[in-house]
Amino acid sequence: MDSKKLTPGRVVLYAVLLLGSILMVGPFIWMILTALKSTGEVSTFSWLPTQFHWDNFLEAMNAAPFLRYFGNSLLLTIGETALTLVFCTMAGYALAKAPIRGAKGILNYFIALMMVPFQIVLVPLFLLVKSIPLFGGNDILGQGGTGWLNTWWALIIPLAIAPLYTFLARQFYVTLPSELADAARVDGLGEFGIFFRIMTPLVKPALVTIGVFQIEAAWNSFLWPLIVTNSDELRPLQVGLAIFSQDPLNVQWPYLMAGATLATLPMIILFIFAQKRFVEGMASAGLKG
Amino acid sequence: MARRRAGILSLAVAGTLALSACGSGGASTAPASNPAEATGTLRVLVPSYPASNEGKAALDKVVASFNAKYPKVTVEPDFATFDTLNQKISTSIAGGQGYDVLVTGIGWVPPFAAKNVFEDLSSFGATADSLGKSTDPALVPASEFKGKVYALPLIAAPKPLALRKSLFEKAGLDPTKPPTTMDELKADAEKLTVKDAAGNITQAGFDFWAGPGGYRQDFVALLGSLGKPLYDGDGNPQFAGAEGTQTLEWMKSMVNNVQKYGAQNAAKSPLVNTGEAAMGFTGGYIDCSDKGVGKATCDDLVYFNLKDKDGSMFTGGQLASVGKSSKLKSAAWDFIQELSKPEAESGIAALNFAVPAGKDSAGSEIVKSNPASTFVAANLGDAKFEGGAANWLELRGTFGTSLDDALLGKKPVEDTLKALEQQSK
Amino acid sequence: MRAAGAAHARAARPEGRKSRLTRNQSRAGWLLLSPALLHSTFFLAVPAVVAIFLSFTDYDFSGTWKLIGTENYVELFQDPRFQAALRNTIAYTLVVVPLSMALALLIALGLNLKIRGLGFFRTVYYLPVVTATVAAASVWLWIYHPSAGLANAVGSLFGLARSEWLNDPGTALPALMAVGIWQGLGAKMIVYLAALQGVSKELLEAANLDGANRWQVFRNVIWPALGPAHYFVLITAIVQTFQVFDLVFVMTKGGPVNSTTVLTFDIYNNAFEGLRLGYASAETVIMLILIAVFIYLGGRSQRNTQDGQ
Asked: CA of B241, closest CA in chain A: separation in Å?
């Protein structure tokens, strides 16, 4: 498996990958190029702008307090991801390794919950969040006030710790040999210690994967923040970007794409770093056994 | 085990749902008879103002003017795009915290009036006549349902017709004599259609500016030229008669004749603006600057409406209503009045590329700024609307799809219209 | 399949200690599990149950509602838009799930080799996941444009007839399927990549030493190790494909003539355009049952491969 030799198989592989890359990257390139066009140019489809309007980026960011929106999205994302990484790995490990009666049933329960589409959960969840007892002016029965509405609680907690990530974590923990735990137990390590110090470090690729997915979901969340907030202080990035597509018939494409490009950049940078960790994970997996 | 939990919970939550729907929540208090003494929070949902700095500044002016009369009432604006408006409104209703002021689009009024979401404005003395004194009378029917007024029109977003002078001249037609009836339109369009060697249309004779499911508003405009609205003032369908059949048959003869079905450019802009069509529906605002389509294109465009039995121009728009569950109804009414003052309306019109609904709109900045807005403001009398049925929001999707069925020849025209007539409530 | 070299016999334990140990582990397990379990129950299960309850009512945001038994369900099965949505969603899922899984696996395998530009390729294949749906929609609308688009241009090179793509009821759904596959590749690829990192190096080396060729290594070492990842990708692919919404909303709005109407889109229409939440909830319940059936069938088809459970 000499990685440097250019066999015919390699050439075909490179060719196919490159061809696919063009298709993958096309819309993204278009996004950037459109951000550089003038408003009139976008009435017909084209790839290249006649002039590179770099000031579109500045104008887009000045149209609203995007720095604050960026900070809000950051807070929202970090909050959700921290919660997810902690509690979903715990639950995933428990479902994979702990002798819980009905573990299979509970896994199916999580999978079933994954199936419920968000559009139909929207109204009941809104009601629930509004009726959290003892928050936002509510009494003990959750009546009379606004509960978690328009607070960071409502933004971060309901959408974190989703069953999807618990499921993913479990599938990774399941591949680990139980003998490791037995050995650690003989050495006197407690259950939580086994989870935290032995098992979890072995599924670093899982942590990275869960992190990447959750961060992307939180960063791009739009509908739920739109519904539960009404104040500008809490508005995250995607809701902020919606000002450019306020009227579906008069979308301000250059500004929208400029904003979208800037919003996507952190995701990409994050992923570049994260996928380097994949390689690291590959190296450490050899420690097993 | 999960099931047992769910069983108990469902009862509890059904109860919560019932309680919330009945309960009031929200911090609004009962209005004092003196505005200067009234306290509380006025929750306003005005998608007309985007949450950008520009939008906020414009809304702040209105709020300041309102607060001059109601110094102790706090205005709490909420944000939504038109795509997500219904989700905002419905969650607020379900949560028992309806908005005090709501701005919605034309066609929204009958459904929400029927659902008791909007307040009947006659309690504030608003009738069709009184409205017609300050607003262009052509827009008043859009704010009515079963004879009562439920909204104040703020802005109008018409879709006029336009033609390209240069392409008209090239085909030997006179651009100063635009077609006035559907038959004339078709005759001209057929002369203007250019096809390539393979028979594909390279220049559409007439652009409907519609994708699949989007021929609905064109239908309204064309039906209107024959003197029929989509629904009458009581919500009865008017489109299934002879005029409706004539209109739909005409559209069917145009589709795949002068323009391929659903043909749009990838930017979904009006083809007459880009020169890909010689005539067609277009927007009520055009940017003639260098950042927009440019002066040459603007000079080449001639705007017109059909005028058969009646002048007809499809018009959308935005109207402001008072929430029925509001605890500050007088304050809400005064807030709406602020929104409909000429300066505020001009601001909203500028932000939404539309024209103010007031009678003196011809003098506003945006109307004077470009030929499209000037034309539509001068011709608001021809306005024709979609909507009018109490289940319009639900029906409009099916309406568009059914029209396509007829246009593609999958169903006979008369049957399609009769089926839609049956589905209208 | 346990990693070789790690097995050593469990020491025999006296009865009392064994059960106490298990109880200990079980209790710890419950403690680890409960936060996520409680969270999901409160924030997902409870709203879902409310939604199921609503499906038996005529709730339409108008302040008065009543229980109407199974009327919504009866009406649904006679609703032509629901029938179209049902057909389209099932067809869409049957095509997109296997194809996107297979492609994602192939790409992951390709990107697992030590090739030049590994980081570049991986990032590029992940891009569709983060590209704004509106941006992707605009480019694909251009690709599918009947006269000025790439698809017909490429097709004519191969002598194919010009197609109307998204404007033709016959080709609109397949066209969307292609976009769906494109959009979902990156995320699946990541999971497969992460799982591929976990394949034991010892086994790979042992197989190579035994003289196994590429295909044998894949079939006997890699494929079984991917079992749990496979199961995850399959389940989530079924669920997420069944729930396709953004694409339809941005590109075709269900048209032309309902040929691309899918269940979540119809549910959204019924809930927030028609404002009939009870009716939409009934439709959701039917969709949930369908997804469960698909998952069951999909899970069964995995029995012959290494059990991911």
From this structure: 31
* Structural element, H or E, at residue B60: helix B53-69
Q: DSSP of C159-205, one letter per residue? A: TPPP--GGGSTTTHHHHHHHHHHHHHHHHHHHHHHHHHHTS-HHHHH
Interface of A with B (CB under 8 A): 38-40, 42-45, 62-65, 102, 105-106, 109, 122-124, 126-128, 130-131, 142-146, 223, 226-227, 230, 232, 235, 239-240, 242-243, 245-250, 253
Domains, chain B, with CATH or none: 38-158+316-384 (3.40.190.10), 160-314+388-423 (3.40.190.10)
Whether A146 maps to a domain, the answer reads: yes
Instruction: Look up the pTM and report it.
Output: 0.88
Is A135 a domain residue? yes
ipTM score for this prediction: 0.89
Confidence category of residue B33, pLDDT binned at 50, 70, 90: low
- Ordered by start, the domain boundaries in chain C are 80-300
pLDDT, tens digit (0-9, with 9 covering 90-100), for B54-109: 999 999 999 999 999 999 999 999 989 888 999 999 999 988 889 999 999 999 99
Tokens linked to B248 = 């739909």
Whole-angstrom distance, CA of residue B281 vs CA of residue B270: 7
- Mutation site, B16, B43, B63, B386, interface A, largest A CB count within 10 A: B16
E strands along A98-228, which residues? none
CA B242 to CA B253: how far, in whole Å?
Answer: 16
The answer to whether the CB atoms of A116 and C39 lie below 8 A apart is no
Contact: A126, B91; criterion CB under 8 Å: yes
Q: Tell me if A166 is assigned to some domain.
A: yes
Residue A118 belongs to domain spanning: 61-285
Please judge whether C272 and B263 are an interchain contact, meaning their C-beta atoms are less than 8 angstroms apart: no
- Tokens found for residue C205: 């080396």
N-term to C-term CA, chain B? 46
Average pLDDT over residues A24-33: 91
Q: What's the CA gap between A277 and A279, in Å, rounded?
A: 5
B93 contacts on C by Cβ (under 8 Å): 61, 63
* Distance between CA atoms of residues A113 and C38, nearest Å: 12
Please, which pLDDT band fits residue C172 given cuts at 50, 70 and 90? very high
Does residue A254 belong to any structural domain of this protein?
Answer: yes
In B256-364, which ranges are continuous DSSP H helix?
Answer: 271-274, 295-300, 329-339, 342-352
Q: Which of C107, C299, B248, B344 is nearest to A17 (CA)?
A: C107
pLDDT at C282 over 60: yes
Structure tokens that stand for A289 in this block: 């056994």
The CATH code of the domain that includes A94 is 1.10.3720.10
CA distance B87 to chain C (A): 6
Q: Which of B13, B117, B410 sits opposite C46 (nearest CB)?
A: B13
Overall CATH class of domain C80-300: mainly alpha
State how far the Cα of B247 lies from the Cα of B233, in Å rounded to an integer. Answer: 21
- Nearest chain A Cα distance for residue B202, angstroms: 15
